[in-house]
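S., here's the first fold you wanted:
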Amino acid sequence: MHLVSDRTTSESADFQALVQSLDAYLTIVNGENHSFFNHYNQINNLKNCIVVYADGEPIGCGAMKVFDNETMEIKRMYVKENYRGKGVAKFILASLEQWAKEMGNKACVLETSKTMLDAVSLYKSFGYLRIPNYGQYIGVEVSICFKKIV
């Protein structure tokens, strides 16, 4: 499978369609916590988004936004179900980290759910280390936050 990534913004129709699929998936995964998380997952004005294509089909996405003056926050990571386990998420994450470095950032942070074991495993395999929950995730039992020096 040949993967191609496109650096774009949240204005991308392909990015928006993938995020709709992500939100539908998270509604099931997060259950009663979905409305809390959904409030913080808006995609308005995201300037650093990636859409990954396989044979012209958009199959995954990720985004990042400024966290502080030397850190980007990874957001909206998603891979279509029939492409999971094939290295697409690794491709997206590596692409976002490279872009963050090119922008002069020194680190990336992110939040995921403790119940999303594949995501937790991915981030740990990339060298992300657990940090105390930050911002809106402080005190949220199901949240787990990570940081990596890039």
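And the second, which I think is the more interesting of the pair:
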Amino acid sequence: MINNDVLRRVRYALDLSDPLMIQIFALGGKEISREDLLDRLKKDSQEGFVELDNDAMDAFLKGLITHKRGTLEEKPGQAPKPELALNNNSILKKLRIALNFKEEDMLNTLQLADFKISKGELSAFFRLKGHKNYRDCGDQVIRNFLQGLTLHFRKSIE
């Protein structure tokens, strides 16, 4: 899925304002102006559209985790975890962490969008690449998860 689409849908689902989006990017280590943000929120058919690269998307997701859960304090002597390449699996995983969702929350969110998968299928998305049960997360899963998030978080707003 295109990073810009994910950014737009997360912003809408969580009802994030421009200043808060800029703050979230900053928490992830990426300084961004309001104009830059607005250009990245445009659809690819609109004039002034700027593609959101993987580094910026990763910074947003890290910032969202920090915004929602606080900073992670590393324990002395603990090696930092290796960074995951940004793909649908890592986007889904980082959203899960940011929202503090458990397996049931994830399944319920997908079910809100009338998309049903089993616990085994869901857990396969969170396995390390190379694990025998690892499975690539398709655009359809991300799209339905984001739709379910919108239904979950916006139902009380509207």
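Why I say that: The chain has a mean pLDDT of 91. Helices lie at 3-14, 18-27, 34-41, 54-69, 88-99, 103-112, 119-125, 139-154.

Talk tomorrow,
H.
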